[in-house]
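Spend some time on this chain, tokens included, and walk me through the fold:

. . .
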Amino acid sequence: AGELQHRAALVSTARQQGKTVALTALVGWWLTVRPVSHGPQTVLTTAHRLDVAVELFHRLADILETHFGARVLRAYGRNQVEMPDGSRWLVKAATGSVGHGLSCDLVVVDEVWSVSAEAIDQGLVPTMRARPEPLLAMWSTAGTEASDVMLRYREQGIQLIDAGHPGDLYFAEWSPSPDMDPMSPEAWAYANPALGRTLKLKTLEAESRSPDRAAFLRAAVNLWVATERGWLTPGLWPELKVGEDVEIPAGGVVALEQSLDESRYYGLRAVALADGRTAVTVEFQAGTIGEWIAAVERLAADPKIRFAVTPTLDIHYPAHLMGRRTSVGYRELLAWTPTVRQMLEQKRIAHTGEQLLAEHVQRAVAVKTQNSVALSSQRSPGPIELARCMVWAVALTSKTVVSGKPMIVVAGG
């Protein structure tokens, strides 16, 4: 019907793949074609630095002036284009106050990995509230642990993929699977759609010999830094997916956890299989504490299910289910991570193939502390809540259950 299918978009590739060319086409189309059916438009383009944001202006402003009769203001920091129909294009740096006082139809954020949550959530998103069909278009290469906004939208995109239905977010990423060797040409091909066209393989081979491996992985392989320090052998996780003929039984242990920013809540279930393995599956993802409580109550209808609850969620845990609750936290993570990793390496754990679980488990980084190892949210390049849940749930499920009365044994001399 001529309406946009999404209100937000996140596109991620390695560097030098033509992102600026794509943005030139997007902004140019929005200023010249979109107004014909939707009236004058206001476009705002921004980036983490003003010089990066202005680069797009240099590419497109002359075309709009020469071929479409636009009036162009070329003043650094106040770059602006005004079209004959009244549409406007403004260029700003992504500071905390960007967008204030504006009402925008299209907001383009380049290199969103380095843009703050304040700029996106308080500066840019509110500018589109009053517009009928706005679009927030975010483009970037992979970021770092501090790229909280990009991580949040990326996580939302993966959740939509797992759910199997579209939402308000369009998510596209060119990157290798976490189980691939990131230093292989096969992995590079997944992150570089321009390979063989404007980018040559020998260029990547030369860059791969750089002493700064983390920089190469981000820029050329579009991987989040620290991924190469994951706790599992590359390629192991996909091998552990259960076959279609394996039925996951009821019961088991459901581990409950929330994200560090308290915006997402997870439930992961572990249950013993008949062949001796322990299967794990994502039971739910919730956006509010109310949805989390409802999911817990739904799972509690199975009397065989027990729950592992972290201290931060304990205050919200239903009182009538206290008898089926075990408290878990960092101490248990420290004690059980080595055992669960051994079970994974020995292929005694299976999973049901959720993409979000794969992301959390394969990006998790284990650090040595107190003569043991534990999964570290601080050292991992993104959320790992489901990986932590897996450690707690698998360990509790696989513990030997001792039943019956104690027996006294007397040995004679």
The chain has a mean pLDDT of 89. The longest helix spans residues 50-68. Residues 183 and 283 are 34 Å apart (CA to CA).
